[in-house]
Design goal:
mainly alpha; de novo design (two linked rop proteins); 0% strand
Length: 196
């Protein structure tokens, strides 16, 4: 009876060490980190989207004839809110690119809106506008930080499913695909030209 017990115990120990060394749990934790980081990205983009109507209304009160710029911001905001990426779509490069493009268009429209404000001294002096502008600047910084954290979580996850022995666990058990990181938009290497 004793040899049988030793055999069962030995098999249990080997199985336990194999499971703990195969990376299954690490891959799961890394993927959850990607999902969590993506939720943070979405939350910061949502904060920006929530600030935009107030900013547009404030500018509209002072610069009603800047209709084209105001409409561009509104259209870009509605386009952004129509593109949502669920966590299962983080592996689809084309969906991810559409999301990034829509966010870039909104950033560009907001830049034009803030440039318009330079022409209106009363608007620039408005406490409401200044508060919204500061909140928007803070939100843009949060977006940058959230995107960096997301990219780091993606890098960790993608590395974990491609390195040994985790790659075997992924190949034979999990079948997870690499996640898409944020990348700079085309032309981002050139400084933007601002004209007043």
């Amino acid at each position: 009876m004793r040899p049988f017990f030793l055999l069962v115990f030995s098999l249990a120990m080997i199985t336990t060490s194999f499971i703990s060394g195969c990376g299954y749990n690490q891959i799961q934790r890394n993927e959850e980190s990607v999902f969590s980081a993506w939720a943070d990205v979405e939350a910061t983009y949502q904060r920006r989207a929530d600030l935009i109507p107030n900013l547009v209304e404030t500018v509209k009160a002072y610069a009603a004839h800047e209709r084209e710029v105001l409409e561009a911001v509104t259209v870009a905001r509605s386009r952004v809110s129509s593109i949502n990426i669920s966590s299962d779509k983080l592996t689809d490069p084309s969906t991810f690119q559409k999301f990034q493009q829509a966010q870039g268009e909104l950033s560009s429209a907001l830049s034009r809106l803030l440039a318009v404000s330079e022409r209106y001294p009363d608007l620039k002096a408005s406490q409401n506008f200044l508060d919204l502008q500061h909140q928007l600047e803070g939100t843009e910084n949060r977006i940058n930080v959230a995107r960096q954290r997301y990219n780091e979580a993606v890098r960790t996850f993608n590395t974990s499913i491609r390195t040994f022995p985790n790659n075997l666990t992924n190949r034979f058990l999990l079948h997870l695909e690499r996640k898409e990181p944020f990348e700079a938009e085309a032309g981002a290497e050139k400084a933007p030209r601002v004209k007043f």
